[in-house]
Amino acid sequence: MIFFLELIGTVAFAISGAVVGIQKKMDIFGVAILAMTTAVGGGIIRDIILNITPPAAFRNPVFTLSSIGVGIIVFVVCRHHFEMQKHAVYDVLLRIMDAIGLSLFTVIGVETAYIHVADANAYLAIFVGVLTGVGGGILRDVLAGNTPYVFVKHFYACASLIGAIVCAVCWSWLGSVPSMLISAGLIMVLRNMAVHYRWSLPKIE
User: What's the whole-model pTM score?
Assistant: First the structure.
């Protein structure tokens, strides 16, 4: 189950990375690399922090290769059928894929911390969960020359943080799978509500 959740998250983040690359008018190589970086970047950072070497992205090529493949497919499809420069299409697709990737990778990060660190506490699990969730998107935006999405768009990192806290708190009571499913669903709901109701943290205009 964890494998399939991670694969779904990988595909979702790869699509979001590819969308940003297309919006930036990158060529097919740039789009593929941005898709791959978004999809596996957070997991690589997670594994380095937890001293899991080499990171899973290098031990199991399915995630890296699938993200590159998804990036190429998105490039080909969007090049011939959609104008991603239309901000409505761009924003909706990016938001949906980012929400899916954020929710799944956050809870997978929590699960990885508990599984691979014998004396892992809730703080470590929450920290690693959030970093796994937002890490790939930050790398994507830095490479694309944008202010990281996590710092300026709605209620993003906070949704990941709340979901990670819920997952860590429920872990010993409900077990791994129910905690992960509940928390992933919560993050999705929070992200959609944040967009619908325009929740944002205070910032200087």
Answer: 0.89
Residue 145 φ then ψ, to 5°: 80, 25
Gyration radius of the chain over CA positions: 16
The burial of 23, by beta-carbon neighbours within 10 Å (0-12 exposed, 13-18 middle, 19 or more buried), is given as buried
In the predicted model, is pLDDT for residue 82 greater than 70?
Answer: no
DSSP label of 86 = S
Residue 192 CB neighbour total at 10 angstroms: 14
Q: CA 40, CA 32: separation in Å to the nearest integer?
A: 12
Domain residue spans in the chain? 2-197
Exposure string over 168-182, b if 16+ CB within 10 A, otherwise e: bebbeeeebeebbeb
Half-sphere CA count of 176, side-chain side, radius 13 A: 11
